[in-house]
Design goal:
Blueprint: E1 11-19, E2 28-36, E3 43-52, H1 61-67, E4 78-79, H2 80-90, E5 94-98, H3 101-114, E6 125-127, H4 128-136, H5 147-153, H6 164-182
Helix pairs in contact: 4-6
Length: 183
């Protein structure tokens, strides 16, 4: 039983990813991380990168428009494997946190498998949607507990929606509000 992880040994890794669409054959185009202390939630590191899709075969025009993807802005983007290796360094020994995190993790795990990379983060996660459901579901304006809805509820500037870095900054702030509201 000495191999049982101790929660106190983990920081929190707030993550957000953007993709070429919602179809599971779509690819990562952007990923962002805020690493925060698992003890007091202070920010330890912040990182974001654009990822060059290896094929645009399954890309959805609407998704590309929403995320602002264009060849010019992605000209210097990292290849997927390089981006994932840096991502794994950034989230090493973290509990991942995100808005509807399981959706992003499906794409991340698929990409990790494609490059024969292993997760460095713990398999357990925290989801701001779940925390929001606990705290906000009975509020009159609670309709879908999207990041946009919760950011508005807490008067948090969301920045540019569907930018991985702006979304994860908003998610981090929503998380702090939700955790404080639960106490």
């Amino acid at each position: 039983m000495n191999n049982v992880p101790n929660l106190k040994d983990f920081d929190l890794g707030f993550i957000d990813a953007e993709m070429t669409g919602l179809n599971f054959n779509c690819e990562l185009t952007e990923i962002a991380v805020i690493r925060a202390s698992g003890f007091n939630f202070s920010v330890l590191d912040e990182w974001q990168t654009k990822i060059k899709p290896w094929t645009m075969e399954n890309a959805e025009e609407e998704a590309l428009k929403i995320t602002g993807y264009n060849e010019k802005d992605w000209a210097d983007a990292l290849d997927e494997e390089t981006a994932l290796k840096i991502f794994l360094e950034k989230v090493d020994k973290t509990i991942l946190v995100g808005q509807n995190i399981n959706f992003d993790l499906l794409f991340i795990h698929k990409a990790l498998t494609r490059h024969n990379l292993k997760p460095t983060f713990w398999y357990k996660t925290l989801d701001t949607f779940t925390l929001g459901w606990e705290k906000l579901r009975n509020k009159p304006n609670a309709r879908n507990l999207s990041l946009h809805e919760m950011a508005n509820y807490f008067n948090i500037d969301q920045g540019k929606a569907h930018s991985a870095l702006d979304d994860i900054r908003a998610t981090y702030k929503v998380f702090l509000k939700l955790v404080n509201e639960l106490h």
